[in-house]
Amino acid sequence: MDGIHDVGGMDGFDDLPPDEPDDASPFHEEWEGRVYALWVAAIASGAFDLDEFRYALERHDPAFYLETPYYERWLAGVESLLLDADVVDREELADRAAAFERGEAEVTDTPGPSLDELSEGVAEVYQTAREPVDPAFAPGDEIRVRKCHPDGHTRCPQYVRGVRGTVEAHRGTHVLPDANVRGDERAEPLYNVRFDAADLWGDEHTDADGVHLELWESYLTEP
Amino acid sequence: MTDTSDSASETTDLRDRDPEARARALQSLLTEKGLLSADAVDDVIGTYEEEIGPQIGAKVVARAWTDPEFEERLLDDGIAAVAELDVQVDDEVMELRVVENSPDTHNLIVCTLCSCYPWAVLGLPPTWYKTPAYRSRAVDEPRALLREEFDTEIPDDVSLEVWDSNSEIRYMVLPQRPPGTEGASEDELRELVTRNAMIGVERLA
Q1: Residues B14, A97: contact at Cβ < 8 Å?
Q2: Min CA distance, B191 vs chain A (Å)?
């Protein structure tokens, strides 16, 4: 979908926030770390995968997406997917949140999966490589990205669509996010493609030389 | 107006509540269902606050600078080479591609679509990496972005190659070894390597 998440090449965002030291906690508030742990547990439980999670965040209202702190957007995404998967009940979750706000609830000390078990579940979700399928393109081939604006999830950003590039490497055969998000697991050859920055943006509007992405075979066509 | 997600509207009232309370509420429900323990929450947070961070990447870079055969393996299969070192990384956690800076090429990592980051070797990303401001500009005017936001000047005769991490393959930059460090030990070299150099927004002097 041509959502607010697809920001490559857009102009007009504010300056970057201040840098943080290398040894700073990645969590600015205690609850941010808790949200990250919730995400780990939810992913590891198999309630949803990375594509479904990304798609949930992409569908957030554009104003909400831009205005809401990162881990709060993650929380909203995890909540909606766990509701969709019937892992939690909406009313129960709302009531419980209200009870915590009033200071009238606490987290019970119940055993659950260990960190190692959760990490295994997460690692599994990251393994998108599948049995090899013969690639249609080879390193050195010129290709063009299909001009296509699907309304669902895709990992083909708008800024490369319709543009000519060169296959730099074949990366094996990987699950196609566009279909996987609909529960249809299909694997395709994946390629690293390099674009001349001038072909993406026009000579006068870029100071980069090359931009590389991984693109699935069905995103590509002859030049 | 139609909403593409039923649950997006269902959670509207939750969004009015304090995220801290919502996070605790969800944690308590997942705990009751046996999906998450309080210990695991502490362990996940502790892991990313104490154990997995740029110090792992720094160790990898310092080894690559001092051991050409390791460097070759690292450039061939990043995560397998990382797992050789005494670090908390297993070789199946992610596919990692290490891209090497040279006198004529500088590399920069971004994820324009979300916030993909080589977390197994650098930890969770800093806030700026996740902002639309960084993600939008890194692919079209990276030299201006690096100059204005990081005081990093990439000379005109150095080619700038950007890697947009849009699949589950993750990228890390292998910076150039700084001049004048010929006599330095691996431990001393490790101290010179920064997170930002491994993302590519900084060059090591």
Answers
A1: yes
A2: 11
Average pLDDT of the residues in A163-186 = 97
For residue B87, what pLDDT band results from cuts at 50, 70 and 90?
confident
* pLDDT recorded at residue B94: 85
Give the pLDDT score at B12: 54
> Do A168 and A196 lie in a common domain?
yes
* pLDDT at site B13: 76
Residue A10 forms part of a structural domain: no
B28 to A105: CB separation less than 8 angstroms, yes or no: yes
Virtual torsion, Cα A65, A66, A69, A74, nearest 10 deg = 20
Q: Which of A7, A24, A110 sits opposite B31 (nearest CB)?
A: A110
pLDDT of residue B3: 46
- Examine the domain organization and report whether A97 and A175 are in the same domain: no
Is the residue at A182 inside a domain?
yes
Which phi and psi (to 5°) does residue A16 adopt? Answer: -70, 150
CB neighbour list of residue B68: distance below 8 Å, 6 or more residues apart: none
Per the structure block, which two tokens stand in for A172? Answer: 């094996």
Please tell me the predicted confidence (pLDDT) of residue B124. Answer: 97
Query: Which residue range forms the structural domain that includes residue A76?
Result: 30-126
CATH code for position A148: 2.30.30.50
Quote the number of domains for chain A.
Answer: 2
Model pLDDT, residue B4: 47
For residue A14, is it within any domain? no
Q: Which domains does chain B have, with CATH numbers?
A: 11-50 (no CATH), 53-199 (3.90.330.10)
CB B106 within 8 A of CB B200: yes
Report the complex ipTM.
0.97
Does residue B2 surpass a pLDDT of 70? Answer: no
Chain A closest-CA separation from residue B179 CA (Å): 23
